[in-house]
Amino acid sequence: MANRQASYVDYVYILELRRYMDTIKRRIAGKVRSYEVYTKDEANKLGYAYIEWRHADEGDLAVSDDGYVSDCLSKNIYTDKKGRTKTFIKCAHGVQWVTGKSKFLYEPNKAAGVYSHVKPTRWEDREARTTRAKNAVNAYVTDIIKGEKPDWEMIGKIYRPDQECPEATVRRLFKKQRIVDMVEKKLKEILIDKGITQEQVLDLQLEAIDMARVKGDVSNMLRVADNFMDLLSMKPGKVVTTDTMELDMSNKIIDAIESEDKKLKLERKVEEREDTQ
Predict the structure, then answer these.
(1) What is the distance between the alpha carbons of residues 44 and 29, in angstroms, rounded to a whole number?
(2) Residue at a domain's end among 90, 121, 152
(3) End-to-end CA distance of the chain
(4) Class of residue 67 by CB neighbours under 10 A (exposed 0-12, middle 13-18, buried 19+)
(5) 237-254 tens-digit pLDDT
(6) What is the mean pLDDT of the chain?
(7) Are residues 164 and 206 in the same domain?
(8) What total of structural domains would you count in the chain?
(9) Has this prediction a pTM greater than 0.70?
(10) Does residue 272 lie in a domain region?
(11) Which domain covers residue 56, as residue numbers?
(12) Cα dihedral sign, 70-71-73-77
């Protein structure tokens, strides 16, 4: 009875464990397979035997230096021109050369979503360094600076003319945060090169408030200033650092604008009532 209860508890534990353990999909020899990754504690409780990754052979369970266990897929030994040998271990949860100081760490691989490189780098970071991605960003920024909508069809042809639908491909690219950062950086460089600085944006906002008191209609000017604030990362809550100033754009300016806007609306209402009498 006790033994049966223990077996049942173990079974329930395993089922619960499988809900939380990592599962990696790898394309090996043209076929996609799923591999489970365990912590050492999980592997121990499941009764799995594993070996330190440097000594693992194909078919073993290998443990990484940061304590994660998964399948060893291959072990290859290479000889250079000087007769020296180097061993390359390929596991489901990462790869590494066997040297005295080498470390095989799973967590950086997981963070990047890359398990086939010694130094894992996210795809978007690698792609951002390519000439085609830089050219696509330049084309996009050129359209924005001209005040035009991005010509995604043309940008797509610049980026990946080899794709079946270049426009869809480049749109997916521009959703990546790394590419968004590239666009923002490029826009800032161009604006600053044209002499549009954060100080000028602040002056625009203050001038708009002054004009609001006098004329009662500065929507276009505020819109321009708002666009510049976006391009220079000066929206509330963002900290902008330059060589000469550090701005914490709180809600002061926005509050002032909203306050003036409310006053203008009240004045218009009063004027409308007076006109109807």
Answers:
(1) 30
(2) 121
(3) 94
(4) middle
(5) 444 433 333 333 334 444
(6) 78
(7) no
(8) 3
(9) no
(10) no
(11) 2-121
(12) positive
Work out the average pLDDT over 258-273: 49
Q: Are residues 30 and 111 in the same domain?
A: yes
Instruction: Report CA-CA distances (Å) from 204 to 54, 191, 201, 226, 237.
Output: 63, 15, 5, 10, 19
Most confident of 103-112, 115-124, 140-149, 248-257: 103-112
Inside any domain, residue 51: yes
- State how beta strands 61-63 and 51-52 pair: parallel
pLDDT per position as a tens digit, 187-234:
888 877 877 776 776 677 667 767 766 766 656 566 656 656 665 555
E-state strands within the chain: 22-28, 31-39, 51-52, 61-63, 68-79, 85-91, 94-98, 239-241, 246-248
Please give the pLDDT value at position 223. Answer: 62
In sequence order, the β-bridge partners of residue 25 are: 34
DSSP string, 236-273: TT-EEE-SS-EEE--SHHHHHHHHHHHHHHHHHHHHHH
138, 228: one domain: no
